[in-house]
């Protein structure tokens, strides 16, 4: 029976974690808030995770999980982003980190009441932010490319720096009774950097060489990378304490920026694994924190969190970015991007146990009848909850107020810039939405720019578009090239950025051909405008005189009236309602309502024949061969 209870406990932790992630997605809340809430509820169970899992097993599992998370974070970084953010990033992770450490240590001492030694440890722990919370926030906010890249880099790079700093301070405190000096910490910093960079670099080279030489079969790629990652993390920590975090970050960074082998499948696997690990880790770590200890911290803990938000973060940002190219809006936005995550929780949990275990040796004081070493974890978790709540609720409104993001990106990235696409893009732009065209034909791009459109001459499948093109305000892809295979590949490429819901493509020319169709259904984006309405059918209709028209639906002129006026051939393409752009899909049964504006493709209707005076019908003299006519005019825009 006891074994079954253990099974239920472990399965329950996973179920709670995934439920919290789903609820956070549905409610548009930071997932870490619900994970922590579920974790605190799990802490009310009779047995704590330490008793069920065991502290000697739990902490290594946490450390290995953090290694996977930081490796995945490192794989999201690109060296080309450093051209814009390099100087500012250097200031944030050096000067900014020291400012946070110093001010947070003072606050921990004078506000919370920690002794100077423990206060410096707490100050070092809260230096970290973390990709587990910064990444999802940036995905939700979608800020301008420059400031988004800077926030992403800081959130990942600062984690190993803050963790190593906390370890060095902790070791210095533990050896303070042995006449410790600052020579030992400085030596440890040098060794940590040396081991992390060298071991990470060598491992990256060997991994790339092995995969490039096809020594590892495809089905073992992800397992092989995971095994190497965890092994090199453990070896690095064995050589130099806590250098493993830097090693795996360097490893992920180098793997992401090499061009010899594709790593998208590795990144996607680690991304899925990260979600699973975070879902379980936050619940388990939060369950270790007694609610009584959180209450015991009291108003001093809340004041400490407020001091970090109101004073420490702005001071670190503005002092560390003096002389950088950032403007005041970008600096202000960075002040709203310092939530703490899993690294702070993991490091705080490990150090709190060590401090409590060595309380007598270190001569720790008591705060409210509890050893200050035991209160490190409640304070750190209070910081996590407070910062995630504040930044999670305010970062997005702040970005919109500062003009660095749109509330819900409604812009469209269009693959293709042929004549009819340009005419349609002008209508979308005039409706108030950002449009970016990408095409390999320079003539099409030149024509698009002459029409006032933002256009880039590049392949939609190139690294330039996915990594360097500024996609601020863009929330969906519309693949509209003449090549159905390119359209499908573009949708697959941008699914990780926009999600499957927001990648669209024109209907393939052989839609409905069953198993012999050119592109399988599971490789496509959402088909737009109608099944069978491919690129060439639209182009032929426009050449024959069809027009893209924008019409406002009212109570007097309903959508039914619109259909009766323009006939069944009128094709609904887009619907604009409350500053939102809806792309009509082939399976969409949506009926526009009064107050909404529609964009439709309307065929030209021949004028009814006029009857001459003798009553006979007038003969239609139109040439039956349109090829002999002059080129058709561009689609008329209304």
TrEMBL record:
Residues 412-503 form the RCK N-terminal domain. InterPro entries: Cation/H_exchanger_TM, Na+/solute_symporter_sf, NAD(P)-bd_dom_sf, RCK_N. The keyword Transport applies. Residues 602-638 are annotated as: Disordered. It is found in: Cell membrane. Pfam families: Na_H_Exchanger, TrkA_N. One of its GO terms (cellular component) is plasma membrane. SUPFAM superfamilies: NAD(P)-binding Rossmann-fold domains (SSF51735). Keywords: Antiport, Cell membrane, Ion transport, Membrane, Transmembrane, Transmembrane helix, Transport. Gene3D superfamilies: 1.20.1530.20, NAD(P)-binding Rossmann-like Domain (3.40.50.720). GO terms for biological process: potassium ion transport; proton transmembrane transport. PANTHER family: NA(+)/H(+) ANTIPORTER 1, NA(+)_H(+) ANTIPORTER 2-RELATED. This is Sodium:proton exchanger. It comes from Bremerella cremea.
